[in-house]
Amino acid sequence: MRIALDAMGGDFAPRETVKGALLAAEELGVEVILVGVQDDIERELARAGANRDNLSIVHAQQVIPMDESHPVEALRRMRDSSILAACNLVAQGDADAVVSAGNTGAMMASAILRLKRLEGADRPAIAIPFPTTAGYCFVVDAGANSESRPHHLLSFALMGDAYARQIGKENPRIGLLNMGEESTKGTELQVQAYELIAKSGCNFIGNIEGKDIPMGHADVVVTDGFTGNIVLKLAEGVGEAMVKILKASVEKSLISKLGALLMRPALRSLKSKMDYSEYGGALLLGVNGVTVIAHGRSNAKAIKNAIRTAKDAVSGNVIESIAQRLQTGGSDRGDSLDN
Q1: Is the peptide bond before 141 cis (omega within 30 degrees of 0)?
Q2: Positive/negative CA dihedral, 221, 222, 223, 229
Q3: Is the peptide bond before 214 cis (omega within 30 degrees of 0)?
Q4: Which residue ranges in the chain fall short of pLDDT 70?
Q5: Among positive and negative, which fits the CA dihedral 239, 244, 249, 254?
Q6: Nearest Cα to Cα of residue 290 among 166, 105, 141
Q7: pTM of the full predicted structure?
Q8: Are 34 and 58 in contact (CB under 8 A)?
Q9: Is 176 helix (H, G, I), strand (E, B) or coil?
Q10: Residue 78, Cα to own-chain centre: how many angstroms?
Q11: 251-267 pLDDT tens trace
Q12: Is-contact 319 118, C-beta < 8 A?
């Protein structure tokens, strides 16, 4: 299996992306194609001094900045960018999947431009793994679309259902994020989306509230990208704040320090569960090729696990399953199909 990695994408690229590629090539049994400025990649490989088996380089001269606010325009200007070149490899059949921790907007636009949308997926959606008391769920959409229509949320539900099934969640519970459990709650978007998803054949459990997500009440949480991204960023902030508060509390007394020492294994387990690097990356649902978007702050471990996510999606034929689910479950898409 060949995974194209945008070696220049991320806050710590290419140092951490190259290290992550080396880990993936060694531990996951995949070939990683490092896409980016060849001299920079070669320098990091030399610094690592590791075995280069299952690694290759495709040169791309340009790099789209992480803070680029107009990604589509940037892609037009930078036709030799690492993100676009990595997506090209998948489109041409030279790679089985693409992974990037670079500019999210540029990654999405590149995937749509080069890989095209699946039929029935008017809007691609990011499926982010979210830790829960029962393991994890997927929040769909976690930021690909700031505005959505009811039939978009229906396609998010169908795609999330297919993805969850392919990675081992039997009959996944689909919940619609809302401000209350009643079917009449929320804006017109939620009310109409509720009606569509209820007819889709999914295991739809109805509306769920924000507090239900970490409790594991649903396997797939459907929402618009604006709300989903706020949920994601709030959870990240709360997690980091809790760690700081806990550390400050422990330092207050000797008894607290001793208690923390005894609880160290449990605290390490909790930290691991909340650590984004353990989950690696999020699959972009709705494009005709396995596309994984990693966190901008990804370290080597996170890059390796993002590549693992890509590998699992390819092995599980996730794209084919999503395409089929969109066709069999999306016949009733409401009265407006415009984008």
Answers
A1: yes
A2: positive
A3: no
A4: 263-264, 266-279, 330-339
A5: positive
A6: 166
A7: 0.87
A8: yes
A9: strand
A10: 24
A11: 777 777 777 777 667 66
A12: yes
